[in-house]
Amino acid sequence: MKLKVNTLFPPSLWTRQTILFAGSLFAKFLLFNLIWCMQTTFTSFSFVGLYLNMALAALIFLAPYAIGRQKGLQYGILFLLDAFLIANLMYSRTYYAAIPLDSYGIASNLSDFTASVYDSLRWIDLLFPLSSLACLYASRKNRQSAGFPSRKAYLATTGVVCGLTLGLNTLHGGFKNAYASLQNANYHTCGVPIYTLFGHLYYQALQEKDLFTPEIGQQIEQWKAQQPSYQPLPDSVPIRTNLVVILCESLESWVLERTVDGHEITPCLNALLKEPTTLYAPQVLTQVAGGRSIDGQLLLNAGMLPIQSGSYSMKYPQNTYFTLTKALKEERGARSYLLTVDKPIVWNQGVIAKAFGIDTVLSKSSWVLDEKVGSRKKLGDESFFRQTTEKLRKGEIWPEGEPAYIQCVTYSGHGPFILPDELKRITIAGDYPQRMKDYLVMANYTDHAIQQLINYLKTRSDYDQTLIVITGDHEGLASDRVPLTQSASGKGIVSDKPFTPFIVVNSPISMRYEKVMGQVDMYTTLLNLLRLDNYPWKGLGQSILDPTKPAFAISPQLQLEGSTEGIATDIIQHAEKAYTISDWMIRFDYLKPKKDLPK
């Protein structure tokens, strides 16, 4: 026993300085895991691998001092590791995942979301650099040293710990299989803490090398065969030739039909909900992932779920996508327009718009910047819709009487939801959390901005042929949701679920759908409402007009929301597997024509 202990803890290795460095490194990984699990689940702490991998990571990062004898470099490693761990925690508070491997190469995109990035910082994050400073202070205070640690002892100890981790992975079929086994509803978020961020990135790198196989093709076809068949509407249902989509940044359902501190938050949208030709579903589960806003466009326009790592628009912009845009063009001869205040390079939306079949993109340079909102001073929603209406009136876009697909993407609702005082239309004076006040004021502002476009559309001669969709691209509160719902004034007002609204104005079928649905279901529902029944791609969702549709949806974290009463287990598993199916379809460009696919 003494020999085994001396192998792991040889006196020649564990000098006072070595203990300080190794202890600081291990503490950082432990702190990261604790904070990560506070946001998810502490289940990962029941895995032996978590402790072995933390120890191995600490030993590897100890190499500059243990082998190189570089104390200064070791201090630099501590602070760099702090930045890396904090960045991933910040990312996880919005995206519910670690930073994808490919996203490190597009960090410049963050310049357009600086305020949102800073807003993800928490006071507890300061413990990382403070631990490094504490290590530095302790080292300076105890300058008496017993010399550098033995390189042989360091390599032997690291080798033993590495052997233990490899042996544990071997018992589970190897690293890739061991990590993949965690990709289920119960352990989906455990991979990062158990295998550290570096193991997580390695797993993603291994996934990138995956090749399409006949087995993957068979699984895709089997899943499609089990998908409920598409149910066309009767011929008596009127046809719409135009589709206007308003994608509202971070709009959640709970602000609709809501009066707070004497103010009706969304009077325009509320009025639309009362119209006899409106379809409304308030419980649309957010299903975006690493692509966030651009994932929202994939879900609605292409009926596909986001890929499991990174953003499809950055990794697979040249792929084949079947979309509502293309369906309207093929069956109605519609011309399509994307209107955004962002640059075309943001989320690579200029390129992905072409892949989606959009004819014209009006981006940042197309607008007069006369109303600035957010830290990046982008065009506010009020001016955006005013200028959009002007272009429509002049016939610069969508000449009256011509079939069209119009997609308007708003910006102002980006976190942290700070609206300039001169643009505020209401003031929330009650004792509410400041973040809640800011969100309500912003929702009211965007609601009023939308009204300009709605009022204009109703004056057009082709309004009867126009379907108008208003929805949020994704939820908005992210990690702020729990504290807001637990606050005395926010409880009972702020929803504890990440639901966005799905509003269809001038719908040929009016209804209020109170069951839970997913964002991916919007595509199939719109295909239904537009009666684009001959379009070959029916999406990965199910129309809410289908009475057999289950009343639940699955999040990217594989969490189920809604009711499963009377629902067979295989139906739930089918919905969960849709994420894997969509990931394969996108990664391997499965929808590309004339591809030799397995039967």
Q: Which superfamily, in CATH terms, is the homologous superfamily of the largest domain?
A: Alkaline Phosphatase, subunit A
Q: Treating each run of at least 4 consecutive H or I residues as one helix, how many helices?
A: 21
Q: What is the β-strand count?
A: 15
CATH topology type of the largest domain: Alkaline Phosphatase, subunit A
Broad shape: globular
Summarize model confidence as the mean pLDDT: 91
CATH class of the largest domain reads Alpha Beta
Portion of residues within helices:
40-55%
Question: Pairing-aware structural class of the strands and helices?
Answer: alpha/beta
How big a fraction of the residues is strand? Answer: 5-15%
Unreliable runs: none
How large, in whole angstroms, is the Cα Rg? Answer: 27 Å
Biggest sheet statistics: 9 strands, mixed
| End-to-end gap | 59 Å
- Total domain units: 2
Second rung of CATH, namely the architecture of the largest domain: 3-Layer(aba) Sandwich
How would you describe this structure to a colleague?
The protein is α/β, with parallel strands linked by helices. The chain has 21 helices and 15 strands. The longest helix is centred in the first third of the chain and has 25 residues. The protein starts with a helix and ends in a 12-residue tail after the last helix.
